[in-house]
């Protein structure tokens, strides 16, 4: 009976009830049997055919050998390991910061509103009109050239 009182208090926002029968708190089970897989209607739009051609799939040994060859080609392994460690620490720190921000009561909702506002502005500024889409495509192309070093 104590478990029933606690569950009633939890369901009703902390209000204590003198005696509540379990049938009020628990949903009733149906007398129908569950739908079996064989009885379910089969609607398949996708057909898959097995093939013995294994040319497109790479085996695990090939992938490991390729990674080993690339690692052996790296000249400054210490720098690569430092950057990898820094990336892991940055990812962990970002996770901690997002968790802390998410625990502040109103801040996640405010950040959602800011994100929605920025998304609306971006759509209006760059995606709504043909000229602005062309401008965005040009900006992306110039950024690609700048990153690739061909500019």
UniProtKB/TrEMBL annotation:
<keyword id="KW-0812">Transmembrane</keyword>
<protein>
    <recommendedName>
        <fullName>Cyanobacterial aminoacyl-tRNA synthetase CAAD domain-containing protein</fullName>
    </recommendedName>
</protein>
<dbReference type="Pfam" id="PF14159">
    <property type="entry name" value="CAAD"/>
</dbReference>
<dbReference type="GO" id="GO:0009535">
    <property type="term" value="C:chloroplast thylakoid membrane"/>
</dbReference>
<feature type="transmembrane region" description="Helical">
    <location>
        <begin position="80"/>
        <end position="101"/>
    </location>
</feature>
<keyword id="KW-0472">Membrane</keyword>
<feature type="domain" description="Cyanobacterial aminoacyl-tRNA synthetase CAAD">
    <location>
        <begin position="66"/>
        <end position="149"/>
    </location>
</feature>
<keyword id="KW-1133">Transmembrane helix</keyword>
<dbReference type="InterPro" id="IPR025564">
    <property type="entry name" value="CAAD_dom"/>
</dbReference>
<dbReference type="InterPro" id="IPR033344">
    <property type="entry name" value="CURT1"/>
</dbReference>
């Amino acid at each position: 009976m104590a478990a029933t009182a606690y569950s009633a208090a939890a369901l009703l926002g902390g209000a204590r009830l003198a005696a509540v029968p379990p049938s009020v708190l628990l949903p009733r089970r149906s007398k129908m049997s569950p739908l079996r897989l064989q009885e379910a209607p089969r609607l398949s739009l996708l057909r898959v055919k097995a093939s013995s051609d294994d040319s497109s799939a790479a085996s695990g040994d090939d992938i490991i050998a390729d990674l080993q060859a690339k690692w052996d080609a790296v000249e400054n392994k210490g720098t690569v390991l430092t950057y990898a460690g820094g990336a892991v620490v940055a990812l962990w720190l970002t996770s901690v910061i997002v968790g802390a921000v998410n625990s502040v009561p109103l801040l996640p909702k405010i950040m959602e509103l800011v994100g929605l506002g920025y998304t609306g502005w971006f759509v209006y500024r760059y995606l709504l009109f043909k000229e602005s889409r062309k401008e965005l495509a040009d900006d992306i192309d110039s950024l690609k050239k700048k990153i690739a070093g061909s500019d």
